[in-house]
């Protein structure tokens, strides 16, 4: 089966160059081209492609708008994002929007074709040829634990070295309630004691700075 590709880029020369690269692949066929978000979304609805290759910067909006609109209708279509700016923020935004692959415009045309081939067979598995190991770890790492507002207050007082009784008095709660909050903090941070909890909190950016501590 031939993979049907839609190209979206406001530069005709880039579209034509990519089209020629795809035409050299017997398993790929460019079924349409568009130069804006509106034209791209319309062409997607009219042509029903297997893969959409879109630039990130378009005259009437952002290429991720195309990604989001397509992804909101189907998980089966591959979505490849092209951009001149291949920083962490752009890569993670593309991932969150539902893109299948991310390719810098300084990459070879054959890399775009390879990304489209990947997107066609694994539309929900993200690919980025230029993604470093560190960036991949950050992109795929689980979200940091979220503490409630009260737990954040208790954590700050733990960092100041207060004991359970002092925390309870400072926050006008019973000692049993303070203990419950501390237990929840330890569980969320994967800690067995105050020292481990504070180290974990510092690593996760939950504490702005180390405070003098006592009562470990």
TrEMBL record:
PROSITE patterns: HTH_LUXR_2, RESPONSE_REGULATORY. GO terms for molecular function: DNA binding. Residues 140-205 form the HTH luxR-type domain. Coiled coil: none annotated. Keywords: DNA-binding, Phosphoprotein. Residues 4-120 form the Response regulatory domain. One of its GO terms (biological process) is regulation of DNA-templated transcription. SMART domains: HTH_LUXR (SM00421), REC (SM00448). This is DNA-binding NarL/FixJ family response regulator. It comes from Nocardioides cavernae.
């Amino acid at each position: 089966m031939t993979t049907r590709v839609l190209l979206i880029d406001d530069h005709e020369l880039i579209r034509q160059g990519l089209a020629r690269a795809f035409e050299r692949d017997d398993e790929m066929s460019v079924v349409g081209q568009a130069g804006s978000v509106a034209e791209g979304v319309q062409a997607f609805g009219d042509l029903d492609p297997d893969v959409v290759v879109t630039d990130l910067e378009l005259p009437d909006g952002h290429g991720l708008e195309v990604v989001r609109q397509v992804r909101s209708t189907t998980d089966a279509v591959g979505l490849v994002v092209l951009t001149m700016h291949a920083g962490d923020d752009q890569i993670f935004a593309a991932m969150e929007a539902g893109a299948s692959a991310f390719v810098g415009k300084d990459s070879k045309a054959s890399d775009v074709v390879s990304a489209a081939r990947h997107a066609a067979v694994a539309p929900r598995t993200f690919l980025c040829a230029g993604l470093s190991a560190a960036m991949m770890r950050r992109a795929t790492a689980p979200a940091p634990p979220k503490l409630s507002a009260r737990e954040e207050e208790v954590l700050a007082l733990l960092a100041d070295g207060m004991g359970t009784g002092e925390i309870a008095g400072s926050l006008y709660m019973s000692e049993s309630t303070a203990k419950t909050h501390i237990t929840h903090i330890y569980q969320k941070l994967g800690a067995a004691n105050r020292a481990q909890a504070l180290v974990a909190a510092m690593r996760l950016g939950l504490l702005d700075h180390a405070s003098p501590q006592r009562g470990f």
